[in-house]
Amino acid sequence: MKRLLTLIATLTLALGAMAQQSLWGSEPIISPEINSDNSVTFRLAAPNANHVKLTGDFMPNEPVVVDGKELGFTVPKQASMTRNSQGVWEYTTEPLASELYNYHFIVDGLAIKDPNNAYIQRDIANLMNYFIIGGGKADNYKVQDVPHGTVARVWYDSPSATTTYRRMSIYTPAEYQTESQKHYPVLYLLHGMGGDEEAWLCTGRAAQILDNLIAEGKAEPMIVVMTNGCPQHAAAPGESHEGMYKPYGVGAMDGSFESSFGDVMAYIDSHYRTIQSAEGRAIAGLSMGGFHAYHISANRPTDFGYIGLFSAAIMPRKGVESPIYKDMDSKLATLFGHSPKLYYIAIGKDDFLFEANVELRQRLDKAGYPYIYNQSEGGHVWRNWRDYLVDFTQRLFR
Amino acid sequence: MKRLLTLIATLTLALGAMAQQSLWGSEPIISPEINSDNSVTFRLAAPNANHVKLTGDFMPNEPVVVDGKELGFTVPKQASMTRNSQGVWEYTTEPLASELYNYHFIVDGLAIKDPNNAYIQRDIANLMNYFIIGGGKADNYKVQDVPHGTVARVWYDSPSATTTYRRMSIYTPAEYQTESQKHYPVLYLLHGMGGDEEAWLCTGRAAQILDNLIAEGKAEPMIVVMTNGCPQHAAAPGESHEGMYKPYGVGAMDGSFESSFGDVMAYIDSHYRTIQSAEGRAIAGLSMGGFHAYHISANRPTDFGYIGLFSAAIMPRKGVESPIYKDMDSKLATLFGHSPKLYYIAIGKDDFLFEANVELRQRLDKAGYPYIYNQSEGGHVWRNWRDYLVDFTQRLFR
Predict the structure, then answer these.
(1) Nearest chain A residue to B6, by CA
(2) Please, are residues B253 and B320 in contact by the beta-carbon 8 Å criterion?
(3) By percentage, how much of chain A surpasses pLDDT 70?
(4) In terms of pTM, does the model score above 0.90?
(5) Is pLDDT at A255 greater than 90 in this prediction?
(6) Which helix (H) or strand (E) holds B364?
(7) DSSP states of A288-330 as a string?
(8) pLDDT (tens digit per residue) in B164-184
(9) Greater confidence, B332 or A22?
């Protein structure tokens, strides 16, 4: 038996290394396994390990303690997994609420991915295993048995950007294929610091959210344009001729992305059947993308009828000389003078940008500008941004 | 210092688990690092590990030995990595030839991904880190500073398939956007057992290969259609409402995929500006996809002017009753009676399907049917299929 296990282990390692078509490379271990009560069982074959733990954003938080001293913030607990006689470690959670969750194992102190879970999300340089518990709000993020839109990765010329040939992701609703004369509204959806044109599709589940809401009649069929908000990069990591560098948390809050945004709109309006007025255009973004949406909409006061700021990084740009960031009081006055149909602010009460958004709301309140405010639990996290997108898109173009 | 390291380790683990935007989640470790002489340095922080090894398809092969007995085949060697005083393990290879390589670490016997490499390929259920050494043939697979085509994931109706609403990937060349009246030839490109509509794009690097060859004038601008050849699945794992199951090596060699192929062609010809004749159509596939291409072209003898069989799984389907597989001698006679411009067979001399392809060539030779034969080194591996695609596409539509 030991000999057989050694052989299997050797072959598994070897075949993985050979980039052989992986017909024989997978172990008969299922992890994660979502049980009927929505508890989840995780398994890892690690016969030589002394201690295997599991952590994820479904675990209760606990204070961080170093050398006996609490550091004043919390992180998810680590659960010890139990080893069986074959060297497979296992842990089953409590029943979990409906959500998209991330997790990883910690084997003798080393954080590793789950080798039995092929589903992975990239956030900047970080790869994360994930799973979805349905039966509640995360049904919005699951692939359902509904018509599916087309997702295209497109390169476009952007003569006014730092990199003049750039990549973006475009979602067109399922009916766009058959309603060949109809023109559609467009949501421009912007990512945060360090993100790229893949972020809202991968971690944000934007295509699934739109497919599901449109199929249920809860959102209007719309085009969704997901740009790359870092003008120093033409595309997501590995997708441009910069090559396969290690991505880090760069962004642009110097006016360069905002001032090149007309190139994006010109491309979309000339290549897709769009409604080319404020009634047919929305712009929204998370974190740095909220900052971008805030300034793009104020600098183009007649272009967007719907504006969404999700955990927006609203902050003064002292020392930044871009005209994009100047005279915001007067620009906001002009924007609200055109009575946008929706000005939407959402943030979690634990978000480190919460105070900045309090100040933003005070500024709008003082001037008497109407907006909708969605305050949620939690912090600066994707689960909030997915929920904000679900809420925001139902308010558009109707 | 120890306290600081503990804190950093705690935070790194914690932030990864929180699905926080990963602005602070990455370590300052670069791995892999491609050195100027094309040697590659790998690094892994694993301070608690006793023994860390590295293996990959760039390592020399060695015989598999279990209990002192050679088993008669070879696998890539495992190299021991060296630990520095901070607990970072390191290994530098010899200078490597130009290629796309896969690798992983083995920490105290446990195979893990490189946490510092965000670049990963999925082959069925297996995720593999990869890197590319340029300066030679792999320049065909790298993203170069050239015009880039559009890649779209599209859902289409397939009334004659097992699952009647299905997903495929479609590459349109860069100039398709601007040459708005021109009609383009189409290459239908099929994956192997267990693969899906993502396989040729991800592991096969089809979009990069086409971008580069077209930009160099070595290949004609063409549309490339990458289907899902497993009719029991509507889409790649996680992309259909089957949900996030663990993918395994399924396929279809029962005639069902081949007999539904007209639905794919009808969709493409009605939604894209195509050349709708044998002169403007090619079909090629790897392994099971080569088997599919062999039978689809023989059953539709006037539709394809170019046929490519890459490591094709040509084998008799005894006990399978589909009319698709019957009367192949007479079908091949009809096909070759229409003088296809190219019948192309490629296989590695170590491929387990080599003998089956010897028999195929004997069958063609005996009947006097012309074909081009590309025999390479190596076995049933993606690096061969990428090279075959580079060679095959240069022979199409000119």
Answers:
(1) A66
(2) yes
(3) 93
(4) yes
(5) yes
(6) helix B354-367
(7) HHHHHHHHHHHHSTTT-SEEEEES------TT---GGGS-HHH
(8) 999 999 999 999 999 999 999
(9) B332
Cα distance between residue B194 and residue B123, in whole Å: 8
Residue bearing tokens 């792999």: B138
In this prediction, residues A167-196 reach a mean pLDDT of: 97
Question: Which residue in the set A110, A143, A151 is minimally distant from B241, CB to CB?
Answer: A143
Among 2.60.40.10, 2.40.50.140, 1.10.510.10, 3.90.1150.10, what is the CATH number of A24-135? Answer: 2.60.40.10
Q: Enumerate the domain spans of chain A.
A: 24-135, 150-393
Alpha-carbon gap, residue B192 to B251, rounded angstroms:
8
- What distance separates the 2 farthest-apart alpha carbons in chain B? 78
Q: Which residue of B has its CA nearest to A30?
A: B246
What is B31-135's CATH topology?
A: Immunoglobulin-like (2.60.40)
B75, A18: Cβ pair inside 8 Å? yes
* Average pLDDT across chain A, whole number: 92
Rounded Cα distance, A33 and A39, in Å? 9
Q: 């089956």: which residue's tokens?
A: B356
- Give the tokens for residue B29: 């470790």
Average pLDDT of the residues in B134-160: 97
pLDDT tops 90 at residue B115:
yes
C-alpha–C-alpha distance, residues B176 and A107, integer Å: 50
Mean pLDDT of chain B: 92
Q: What are phi and psi of B24, to 5 degrees?
A: -115, 10
Instruction: Indicate if the alpha-carbon torsion angle B6, B8, B10, B12 is positive or negative.
Output: negative
And the tokens for B193? 């057992």
Asked whether the beta carbons of residue A150 and residue B151 sit closer than 8 angstroms, the reply is: no
Domain B150-393 fold: Rossmann fold (3.40.50)
Measured between CB atoms, does A272 come within 8 Å of chain B? no
Residue B270 has pLDDT above 50, yes or no: yes
The reply to whether B56 touches chain A by the CB within 8 Å rule is: yes
**In 3-state terms, what secondary structure has residue A261?**
helix
Question: How would residue A25 be classed by pLDDT, with cut points 50, 70 and 90?
Answer: very low
A37 burial (CB, 10 Å; 0-12 / 13-18 / 19+) is exposed
DSSP string, B215-246: HTTSS---EEEE----TT-SSSTTSSTT-S--
Distance, in angstroms, between B240 CA and closest chain A CA? 6
Question: Residue B11: what pLDDT?
Answer: 45
pLDDT band at B4 (very low <50, low <70, confident <90, very high): very low
Name the pLDDT band for B317 (thresholds 50, 70, 90). Answer: confident
Whether B212 contacts chain A with CB within 8 A: no
